[in-house]
Amino acid sequence: MNARPPEAAGAPAEDLSAGPVRVLSFGCRLNTYESVAMRELALRAGHEGAILVNTCAVTAEAEKQARKAIRRAARENPGAPILVTGCAAQIAPDSWAALPGVARVIGNADKLKPEAWAPAAPPAPVSDVMAATETAAHLVTEFAGRARAFVQVQQGCDHRCTFCVIPYGRGPSRSVPVGAIVAQVRAVLEAGYREVVLTGVDIASYGTDLPGRPPLGQMVRRLLALVPELPRLRLSSLDPAAMDEDLWRLLAEEPRLMPHLHLSLQHGAELMLKRMRRRHGRAEALACARRAQALRPGLALGADLIAGFPTETEEHFAEMLALVEEAGLTFLHVFPYSERPGTPAARMPQLPVPLRRERAARLRAAGAEAALRFYNARLAFARLGQEESVLLESPDRGHTEHFAPLRLKGATGHHGAVLRARVTAAGPDGLLAEVA
Ligand code: SF4
Question: What does pTM read for this prediction?
């Protein structure tokens, strides 16, 4: 699962509107990428005045937010056709089609196909995403004011974690052939982007459906070789159970691969990981973190973690808190468990929602402490003369290669530029620096 920070899972939509088509995107980076691609398809197909809503099914809150946005859009824009897609719409198309103003529900398997947007296209039943065999690569060169470009390399998931509905929204794992990825990366570099984030649902499963089953590491190595002008490459969430040897070698040897990995851990207690049906245990998660730090000293490790999973005791929770320290995790994406209808976990004994939220808050506090330790370590390196390379997302703010947030004293840069900076202070919100 490659969710954007958890607050995004229940957050209001990201407005990716441009020209006469309004676009409201919920959920993950993959949805962001697809929303930009669909906006272009809708424009080209002549859907002037339409409102496109790309839904997310990761949490109940994300669905609630999307329904609220559709009702408001229908109220404020009477007569405007609302086109709905995304994982929540794929899983329960009729209930979304019944909302006010909804003119069409487009399935996840069809959302990047131009024919699905043809104005005259008859309302068709949402196709069975479980039967999807390919993933449409789409050239997207504009990311709504973002400084880094998202490139989809994979889609869907073959696993069945007990809390997750994503496989039912996105279908089986499908990979984008490396040639299409290279073309997409070259296009965004030509459009001026200096950093690319490879995204998907379970990118560690890259290649399992391609001839010769090239693993993620092999694809990344070929991409970096074929696009020597790509300065910064970042990976979205990785499953610790599926890191291949090529990827480990690249992490150790390739400076253009950013020293920041985000791991899809989900928990830190052995029994919870078993009940989640995760592919890794606590020992594997720890070994993965330690190997990454040994290969790339100073690397930043992020992780997705769920608090309040059914049957979680205070002892299980304490094991997760301990893992944050033992594994040297820095940036935590913490989700209070949200039961999803039809999942095995939803049939397990549930914890009270206030307890889930209280544990999520304690885990976030542990994450904030870990992040501050990391920022102070970067300050200590600066005192030894080390500089940071920062990608600016605004004239005075950006993120370093380790994905540490950084503010520049005396705004001199411009959105999308990569600068050298010398850290002068560290605090809970990140680093303060001056241009080197
Ligand atoms: S089933 Fe598991 S691996 Fe697949 S998307 Fe969901 S959480 Fe990720």
Answer: 0.91
Residues with pLDDT less than 70, the chain: 1-12, 120-125, 133-145, 411-413
User: Which residues lie below 8 Å from residue 323, measured CB to CB, with a gap of 6+?
Assistant: 265, 268, 282, 285, 286, 329
Amino acid at 77: N
Is 1 a pocket residue for ligand 1 (Cβ < 6 Å)? Answer: yes
Residue 103, classified by CB atoms within 10 Å of its CB into exposed (0-12), middle (13-18) or buried (19+), is middle
Write the pLDDT tens digit of every residue in 236-257.
999 999 999 999 999 999 999 9
Q: To test ligand 1's pocket by mutation, which of 129, 173, 201 has the most ligand atoms within 8 angstroms of CB?
A: 201
Statement to judge: residues 372 and 422 lie in one domain: no
Q: Which of 108, 161, 343 to mutate to test ligand 1, by most ligand atoms within 8 A of the CB atom?
A: 161
What stretches of 308-396 adopt beta strand conformation (E)? 331-336, 388-394
What's residue 9's pLDDT? Answer: 52
Alpha carbons 366 and 321: distance in angstroms, whole number: 7
* C-alpha 157 to ligand 1 mean position (Å): 6
* Ligand 1 near 161 CB (within 6 A): yes
- One domain, residues 427 and 371: no
Report how far ligand 1's centroid is from the alpha carbon of 316 (Å): 21
Q: Are residues 353 and 293 in the same domain?
A: yes
At residue 137, the pLDDT reads 57
Which candidate, 329, 339, 338, places its Cα nearest to that of 363? 329
Q: Nearest residue CA, atom 5 of ligand 1? A: 1
The domain containing residue 417 runs over which residues? Answer: 387-435
Give ∠ CA 215-218-223 in degrees, rounded to 5.
125
Where among 381, 407, 427 does a domain terminate?
Answer: 381
Which residue's structure tokens are 């070789």?
225
Residue type, 16: L
Measured CA to CA, the distance from residue 370 to residue 365 in angstroms comes to 9
DSSP of 71-88, one letter per residue?
HHHHHHSTT--EEEEEHH
The ligand 1 atom at the shortest distance from the C-alpha of residue 266 is: 7
- On whether residue 272 sits in a domain, the answer given is yes
Q: Are residues 415 and 322 in the same domain?
A: no
317 with 416, same domain: the answer is no
* Sequence-separated (6 or more) residues with CB below 8 Å from residue 62: 9, 10, 26, 27, 55, 56, 88
Q: What is the pLDDT of residue 223?
A: 98
Are 394 and 372 members of one domain? no
Residue 140 Cα to ligand 1 middle (Å): 26
